[in-house]
Write a structure and sequence with these properties.
With about 180 residues, this protein is mainly alpha-helical. The chain has 2 domains: about 90 residues, Orthogonal Bundle (Rna Polymerase Sigma Factor, Chain: A), CATH 1.10.1740.10; about 80 residues, Winged helix-like DNA-binding domain superfamily/Winged helix DNA-binding domain (Arc Repressor Mutant, subunit A). It has 9 helices and no strands. Helix 8 crosses helix 9. The termini are far apart.
Length: about 180
């Protein structure tokens, strides 16, 4: 079923259409929350909140073409709110980064899985070391696949600003990867 029809059926209260919409985008909502929060359990909770907010505001989504950026904007705002609350009330116990990585096997073999996992872990650790602005640009552009125009609209900044932030973020990410590998930045 195409997204336009699915959204319209959700607006009319069709529970099967809503279930289909959630199943189609739950991984994306979780991934977005996980990249912002760095904690799988908290990301699962926030993904549910994202869908509650989508359900409450589905009438404000103007078209199927804008649904994904609209959903990401909702998720981003909820993540930022959660991070603000977290900073106001820090947790007593922190979980090491190594325990937060949830890697899925693709089946080629253990050596390939280990190598991919190490690269993924390296990139995640490097992203975690970026400034909030750089991390957000990498997340929205490279991981979520939003266009520069969509990011500019979401952040409320000119597209040129997004371009320069994107370039600086990619350079900063490369520098962090080099530092983690033991090279000089």
């Amino acid at each position: 079923m195409d997204l336009e029809t699915l959204i319209e059926r959700c607006r009319t209260g069709d529970p099967l259409a809503w279930e289909m919409l959630v199943r189609r985008y739950q991984g994306r909502a979780f991934g977005l929350a996980y990249h912002y929060l760095g904690n799988a359990e908290e990301a699962r909770d926030l993904a549910q909140e994202i869908f509650v907010r989508i359900y409450e505001r589905l009438a404000s989504c103007t078209s199927a073409e804008t649904f994904v950026p609209w959903m990401i904007r909702i998720g981003r705002n909820l993540c930022i709110d959660r991070l603000r609350r977290r900073r106001a009330r820090p947790q007593a116990v922190t979980t090491p980064v190594e325990e937060m990585v949830d890697l899925a096997a693709d089946a080629p073999g253990p050596a390939t899985d280990l190598e991919r996992g190490a690269r993924r872990d390296l990139v995640q650790r490097a992203i975690a070391r970026l400034s909030d602005v750089n991390r957000e640009v990498i997340l929205l552009k490279e991981i979520e696949g939003l266009t520069l125009q969509e990011i500019a609209e979401m952040l409320g900044v000119p597209i040129g600003t997004v371009k320069s932030r994107s370039n600086r973020a990619r350079i900063a990410l490369a520098d962090e990867v080099r530092l983690l590998l033991g090279g000089s930045a």
